[in-house]
Every structure is written in C-alpha cells, then in structure tokens.
User: Fold these one by one.
Assistant:
Number 1:
Amino acid sequence: MLGKKKIAFIGAGSMAEAMISGIVASEKLAPKNIFVTNRSNHHRLLELQNKYGVPAVNRDHLNLNSMDIIVLAMKPKDVEATLHSIKNTLKPHQLILSVLAGISTTFIEKNVPFGQHVIRVMPNTSSMIGESATAISAGRHTSKQNISFAIELLQCIGEVYTIPEEKMDIFTGIAGSGPAYFYYLMEQMEKEAQKSGLSLQIIRKIIAQTVVGAARMIQEQGASPAILRENVTSPNGTTAAGLAALKRHGGGKAITEAIKQATNRSNEISLQLEKSEIRTGVIG
Ligand SMILES: NC(=O)C1=CN([C@@H]2O[C@H](COP(=O)(O)OP(=O)(O)OC[C@H]3O[C@@H](n4cnc5c(N)ncnc54)[C@H](OP(=O)(O)O)[C@@H]3O)[C@@H](O)[C@H]2O)C=CC1
Ligand SMILES: O=C(O)[C@@H]1CCC=N1
C-alpha cells in the first residue's frame, strides 16, 4: 500500500531523523520518496541526505503539491507559523501527520483548510531502530484509508497503538518521553558501576542487556512487573537491600512525579497555544 507514496518531513531534528532512519531501514518506501526540509540549517539537511539517501530540500524549493503525506516535525512553538506558510498549498487528499507533543488535531484542523485529513502521532526516538511505541489519534475528517495508510507507515518504526486523543498526554508522559527516564536511570547506574574500576565499555553493555532482558520478560512472558520484581527479590538478599534504598530515597515517587509532570506539560502546551490563538483571534 505504501508503494510509491511520497512523504515530506517539515523539520529535520532528532525525531524526524529517528523516523526517517526507521522507515528507510524497513525498505517499505524508497529513500527517494522521503523528502526532508527545515527552517534554515542547510548543513543538517546535507547530513540527513548523506546518511539516509533522502532528498534534502531547501524549504522554499520543496514542492508540497506532489506529496501524499506531510509530517509536521518542528517544535510546538513553530507549528502555527509553519501551518500558516503551507495552508494555501495543501490539497484535500493530503494527509498531515503531526508528531508534536501537546498539539491537538483540533488546533491543526483550525489552521488548515476545512476537511483536511489530520492524524496526531506520538512516536519516540527508538523509531531509529524500528522499536518505537507509537500512538495515533485521527482528526475529524480523516478517512479510514488514510488511517490504515498511516498505521502501515508507522509500523515501519515500531508498534502502533490507536488511542482516544484525550489519552495522548499520558501516552506522551510514559512513551514519548519514556526513553529519557530509562536513559537517566542507566546514566546513574553507569556512574556508580564505574567506581568499581570496570570499564565503561563493558558496564554499558551489561546495563543495556539487563534492561533489554527485563523488558523482554514482560513482552514474552506476559507477567506483571510486580511479579517479576518479586521473583528477583530473595528474602534478606541483595535486591531487597537495593529496593529498600530505592523506596527510602523516594524512587517510586520520583518516577510517578516524572510521568505526571511530563503529562501535565503536554496538556499545558496545548492550553498555551489556544490562549495565544484567542489573543490573535483564531479561536472564539
Ligand atoms: N525528540 C523526541 O524524543 C520526540 C519529539 N517529538 C516531537 O517532535 C517535534 C520535534 O522535536 P525534535 O526533533 O526533538 O526537535 P528539534 O529541535 O531537534 O528539531 C526541530 C526542527 O524543526 C525545524 N523547524 C522549525 N521551524 C520550522 C519551519 N517553520 N519550517 C521548517 N522547519 C522548521 C528546525 O529547523 P532549523 O534547525 O533549521 O531551525 C529543526 O529541524 C517536537 O514537536 C516534539 O514534541 C515527539 C516525540 C518524541
Ligand atoms: O520533550 C519533548 O517535548 C518531546 C516530546 C516527547 C519527547 N520529546
């Protein structure tokens, strides 16, 4: 179904690169049909072109008319200006995929011609290796065919979950931002382990394998994390000592707070944008 479809990424940052990398590696779409542009960083465009073989096009020279899918991959603060600059060139059949945290389909629909097909997407940077946990929520006018098309495309970068849009903030809090929590945890584990004199190279491999193994136990055994944790914890053993320290130092609370704050921030981004729209008269 993807066949000869053409995609343009507007925005060439870490998220665009992760998605491009995953899509190119999947071989479901030829690199020549994946276009990427940004605001001004030409060096970055050349870097992506050299690395993935995708045409990197200066913003003014990108022919949006010939695209089937347009992926919005800029920061939320830049979305309004971007939509303003493309809305007059959009064709009714074109599908807009937005990966922007906190930006609703309603907001996008209000800033493009009536009836435009829009899907809100929340991937994560593991898209780079085809291991993203990605959520999608379709806008009001999006056809079933375009939803299937988006799912097929996003399956190139990992697992895809269709969720109600009001759950996008929590999804962002656990899965969009999620990799960063694990990287932070791994950073702390590395720092402590280095004190032992083991080489960073071997420590990094050990920690990554430990995380992969734990995640795969959940995926493949279907067990709950609580049961799996209990299985590791021998009475009066090393894990019990470690977990007690984690609890004493607020480990659980720290994790729930991180998720709450990330989720709130996603919600706050949309509220801030709507307030600025009210000021500029786009809404209300
Ligand atoms: N990073 C992540 O893990 C995730 C990010 N996201 C979402 O992805 C989006 C991008 O994030 P990220 O890649 O980290 O951000 P970056 O800052 O790395 O990249 C932003 C890109 O947007 C470009 N840009 C800004 N304004 C315009 C414009 N008017 N026209 C064309 N290009 C423009 C920038 O170009 P230039 O450099 O030339 O200014 C840059 O290439 C965000 O909205 C974020 O919420 C979603 C899930 C995960
Ligand atoms: O930090 C951010 O806002 C983006 C969205 C999810 C992950 N990164």
Number 2:
Amino acid sequence: MKVAIVGATGYGGIELIRLLRQHRHVTEISVFSSTQAEAPLTSTYPHLQDVYKGILQSMDTEELATEYDVVFLSAPPGVAATLAGNLLEGKAAIVDLSGDFRIKEPSIYEAWYGREAADATITGQAVYGLSEWNQEQISKAKIVANPGCYPTAILLGLAPAVKNNGIDMTSVIIDAKTGTTGAGKNPAPMTHFSEMNESMKIYNVNEHKHTPEIEQQLSEWSEEADAVTFTPHLVPMSRGIMATMYATCTSYSSAQEWIDVYKAAYEAHPFVRVREDGFPATKEVYGSNYCDIFLDYDARTNRLTIVSVIDNLVKGAAGQAIQNANLMNGFEETEGLEFVPIYP
Ligand SMILES: NC(=O)C1=CN([C@@H]2O[C@H](COP(=O)(O)OP(=O)(O)OC[C@H]3O[C@@H](n4cnc5c(N)ncnc54)[C@H](OP(=O)(O)O)[C@@H]3O)[C@@H](O)[C@H]2O)C=CC1
Ligand SMILES: CC(=O)N[C@@H](CCC(=O)OP(=O)(O)O)C(=O)O
C-alpha cells in the first residue's frame, strides 16, 4: 500500500515511519508538513539518515485522497476535522490519531475539549479504533478514530472485567502515569526537563479530555456504566503509560479466577499479554505494540486492582494506527508490528 503521513515531523509521525519501514505491504511512504515543505525529514530528525530519504511535501487534500491507499493524520486537534470531508471523497482509508472523531456526542466533545466539534456526519462514520474489541467494524471502516493513549491502556485493562459483569461500575477509579512524549514534540512548561525531572506531577484532575472517551466505550460494553474517576500523572520518563484501575467486585472471589477471565478474553489477541505472575513495568513494553496486564483480588476489601502498561507512542498511537490500517486493508493485524520490547 502507498501511505501518506500528515504531521510526519511530530512524535506520532516519526514513530509511524519507524514502524512502517518494517511493513511488508508498504511500497511507499510520503510525508506531509504544514510548515517545512521541501525540507528533507532528516533535517529535523538526523537519526533517519540512510533510513528514510523522504522530502516533506505541502498538503494537497486532493492528492492525499486520490494517490494513497492509507492516510495517517497525526496532527494537532482540529486538523483532521478540517481535512476529513475532502479526504473521504477519495479512495484512501483514513486513520486519525487525534481526538477529533472519538466522541460521538458533539456537546460532550465541546464541553471537554473546549473547541467546536467536527462535522457530526463524519464523526458518525468514524469507527472507534480500539483494535482488539472493535475488529469487525474497523475492518469495514473508511475512517477510524484511533483511541487516545490513556484510554487504550485503561480500556484494554478494564474490558474483560466490565464485559463479564464482574465489577460494580459505580466504583471504578483509574490512576494513570505517563511519560513526556505524550505531550508531543513542542516544549511546554509542564514537560520542561527541570520541571519534571526527579518529580511527579498530577494534572487535569477530574477534567482530563480522555474521561468522556473512556466513559463512552464503557457505556457501550455495560448498561450499568457510570462516571469514572480518572487521575493522570506525569512521571520523568520519555515513553510509557501505566494505568492502575481499582473496582469493587460483584463476582469472582480469587485472583486466579480473575486471571483466568482475562486470559480467556485475550487468548486470540497477540498484542495483549496477560501476565502469568506479577505486575508489568512500562519498560517491559517499551518500543513495542504490546499492552501487558496483570491483576490482583483483595479479599479484605473485595476490590480488584488491574495494572495495564503500554508504550504511548506505539500501542497508544502509531502502532495501534497501523494495526487498524492492517485490519482495514485485510492484512494480518500483526504485520509490521512484531517488535520485541527494547529492554533494559
Ligand atoms: N504523543 C502521543 O503519545 C499521542 C498523540 N496522539 C495524538 O496524535 C496527534 C499527533 O501527536 P504528536 O505527534 O505527539 O504531536 P506533535 O506535536 O509531536 O506533532 C504534531 C505534528 O502536526 C503537524 N501540524 C501542526 N499543525 C498542523 C496543521 N495545521 N496541519 C497539518 N499538520 C500540522 C506538525 O508538523 P508540521 O509543522 O511539520 O506540519 C507537528 O509535527 C495529536 O492529535 C495527539 O493528540 C494520540 C495518542 C498518543
Ligand atoms: C503528557 C501529556 O500531556 N499527555 C497527553 C496525552 C494526550 C494524547 O496523547 O492523546 P490525544 O490524542 O487524546 O491528545 C495529555 O494528557 O493530554
């Protein structure tokens, strides 16, 4: 397939290039920029010398729509909302990494994102790209809304418990930590080295934009779904998310029963590894498309503790985007993604 990347100079964009270089069905990768047209990508990213020789091109939506089989939109909020209408008229399958089309209800999007929602007909057409749980719809989609990085880790971690009606949906608390690449490549006060090094920051308490995305999916899985408490933290690492979820149990009363439920749920899904014994660390999925999960049941409190880790730039962004493009094009979902985590 011929592939185009809009926002190729960003962190999601260069991660797409790294992964797509290993994809056996990709014949061409073209890169687009709103500010650096005609420059080689190596002028921004010298580590790509002799690896990728592409020159950044200015965006032409007609060309994007007609010349490519897949267009990855890896740009800031609002860009996909502007481009998608024209792109949908062409042949390309579209995978949008931003949050523009994830939230179905425009008023909810506007309340949490503080900006105008995208055209409702396009959002209605966009399939939520949580690959493991939405494969059938993704495989028929023309446009996929790739999930946010936190919701990917959180929803994969909660899904088996929710779908088996094993937890009280009013009791869900999510405590999550992320590395700085989650904020993109542009420096900001929060991610400045001297602000975050040897420190830990809590942010957007009870107002993070991923909250409605999590709640929307939970409500599709369970009639009992309710509001969740979601608390994000920034920790001093470049990549990685660890999401820790707590919930009161309504069935199953041992850790082993819970592990069996999770093992069964993810048996057929190569990128979700339910651990045998012990909680995963973010480093154990670094640079890979894996989501590793482990859980424990506490009989004293009747609560379940679930831990889910991903690399935010891979399973949380570029990797899941390619997994979705594979499903949309009828390829093996693992194509181009079978990376062993970089360890240590
Ligand atoms: N970083 C992460 O962990 C994750 C990111 N995402 C989402 O993916 C998207 C990309 O994120 P990330 O790569 O981190 O962000 P970056 O800020 O690193 O990169 C975004 C890129 O978008 C391009 N861009 C800016 N304005 C425009 C425009 N008007 N039209 C077209 N392109 C534009 C810029 O390149 P140029 O100036 O060359 O055009 C820039 O390099 C965002 O929507 C983000 O929310 C989703 C999940 C995880
Ligand atoms: C550290 C940091 O700022 N992380 C980002 C992660 C967002 C993201 O990457 O996903 P979206 O596509 O939904 O924007 C945040 O908390 O907003």
